[in-house]
Specification:
The chain has a single domain, classed as 3-Layer(aba) Sandwich (Rossmann fold). It contains twelve helices and five strands. Helix 6 packs across helix 8. It is globular and about 50 Å long. Strands 2-3-1-4-5 form a five-stranded parallel sheet, sandwiched between helices. It is an alpha/beta fold.
């Protein structure tokens, strides 16, 4: 038995709170895994979490909302004014420094210096994330929109996604209605599949538009199909982008847990409704 007991949750949170207020450096060059939900963000993030130098944060809602309450849009939220979309103007230097220190504190807890976060909702907040973390880098995983929409549909049929969190669809619909190119699309979404396809479009366009204005060395794009087909080479590219040496725990996890699934979409031509909802990035040759 060790000489020291593991600190209680309450003590840990107290230390975390004190640390966030100290004039110390925040996290440097954090990595954000982004992409529409059901695009492979979880499996990619989980694989990276196996690396001996990576501290992995899986959708750290409380960490964000403890500093920026507007980020809280989840069921049982205490902030009814939470926003799906946040811009650079929503960032505040004082609060951002606090969040930077909180992120770095997480690496102190684990002893792993490189921080990787997976949080699909940040796809709608990338200018905000860049303002909070100016030296952030991004790993963008993208998947064919039809497959994503079917996956979201299955989640809804199981009582999850829009069913468990109706506010999620309401905010997506409001966001779509606020833009000229998509303002009429929520009215076309009469099924979970169509709602999922619109979510994919909004996420994809938000990410692609953001990355178009970023330096090439600050992001990497990973196709879900590429990850499944060439899993070892693909994960090596991601690890190299992050700036780390290969870790057998990561490649071993990928080898055992990522496998090819047959596409359920077949080679059917897109319907007019799919074309309208899916937009310019909906390409059948991605399947």
């Amino acid at each position: 038995m060790g000489l020291f007991k593991k600190p209680s949750h309450a003590i840990l949170r107290m230390v975390q709170s004190v640390h966030s207020c100290l004039p110390v450096k925040g996290i440097a060059r954090p990595i954000f895994v982004v992409g529409c939900g059901r695009s492979g963000t979880t499996i990619l993030g989980t694989a990276l979490s196996r690396h001996r130098e990576i501290t992995y944060l899986n959708e750290p809602r409380k960490l964000w909302s403890s500093v920026y309450s507007d980020t809280d849009i989840w069921p049982n939220s205490t902030n009814p004014d939470g926003k799906l979309v946040l811009a650079a103007a929503d960032a505040d230097s004082k609060r951002s420094r606090k969040l930077q220190r909180l992120f770095r504190f997480e690496t102190f807890r684990t002893g792993r210096p490189v921080l990787v976060e997976k949080f699909p909702v940040n796809s709608f907040r990338l200018q905000f994330v860049r303002a909070v973390f100016p030296d952030a880098r991004f790993v963008y995983i993208h998947r064919n929109g039809l497959e994503v929409a079917r996956s979201i549909e299955r989640m809804c049929d199981a009582g999850k996604w829009y069913v468990a969190n109706p506010g999620k669809w309401e905010r997506l619909a409001q966001h779509a209605a606020s833009m000229r190119d998509t303002e009429e699309l929520p009215g076309l979404c009469n099924s979970y599949y169509e709602k999922g396809l619109l979510e994919w479009r909004l996420s994809t366009e938000a990410i692609e538009d953001f990355l178009a204005g970023q330096a090439e060395n600050t992001f990497i794009k990973v196709g879900y199909a590429e990850l499944v087909k060439d899993k070892i080479d693909t994960i090596r590219k991601v690890i190299s982008f992050i700036g780390l040496a290969e870790d057998s725990q990561v490649t071993g996890f990928v080898a055992e847990n990522i496998y090819r699934r047959s596409s359920e979409m077949g080679n059917q031509p897109l319907t007019d409704t799919e074309k309208m909802i899916g937009g310019r990035y909906l390409l059948v040759d991605q399947l």
